[in-house]
Design goal:
The protein has 164 residues and is of the alpha+beta class. The chain is built from 3 helices and 7 strands, in the order αββαβαββββ. A hairpin with a 3-residue loop joins strand 4 and strand 5. The protein starts with a helix and ends in an 18-residue tail after the last strand.
Length: 164
């Protein structure tokens, strides 16, 4: 029985690592940019479901069928991993020639594994809630030009928050 636990743990860890290394596309973005303010809040949700299909009677099917597992992490700018994420996002903005900066950020990350008869679903969700500044490109008495290039947020490489 302990051999199955070890194999399941290794498989689960591998699946989680692989699922977090694939691109995540924003499903929802909410930002109220106030041209008369130097900062504005944003709220972005990345959400994805991965299905693992397996044949009846295989080892993976035996290990994952009827399994359920959940993990979640919440952190803010006081966490070194969140600070690393802010730095990487701001570097991406800089490399894209944008003056936008994230000055505050909190994250909420959750993963849920649900084993079924012929497949297993891994659902993950990442919520970024932060504050932007430097988005005003040009302002005069009549109009304001806002930098919207920051909406394509991405980082290269892993970001570890609270060991996850």
């Amino acid at each position: 029985m302990s051999g199955k636990v070890v194999v399941f743990s290794v498989l689960l860890t591998t699946l989680i690592i692989l699922s977090t290394s694939t691109p995540a596309w924003a499903a929802q973005l909410e930002a109220r940019i106030n041209p008369d303010s130097i900062t504005s809040d944003f709220y972005m949700i990345y959400q994805r479901t991965i299905f693992i299909e397996y044949n009846e009677g295989g080892q993976i099917a035996d290990l994952l069928r009827q399994q359920s597992w959940t993990s979640s992490v919440t952190a803010d700018s006081s966490d070194p991993g969140v600070v690393d994420l802010i730095d990487k996002l701001n570097l991406k903005f800089f490399n894209d020639r944008s003056s936008v900066k994230i000055s505050d950020l909190s994250i909420d990350h959750s993963v849920k594994l649900t084993g079924r008869g012929l497949n297993t679903a891994i659902d993950y969700k990442l919520v970024l809630d932060g504050t932007l500044s430097g988005y005003i490109i040009k302002k005069d008495q009549i109009r304001t030009l806002i930098d919207m290039g920051w909406r394509g947020m991405s980082v290269v490489g892993p970001v570890v928050v609270k060991g996850v």
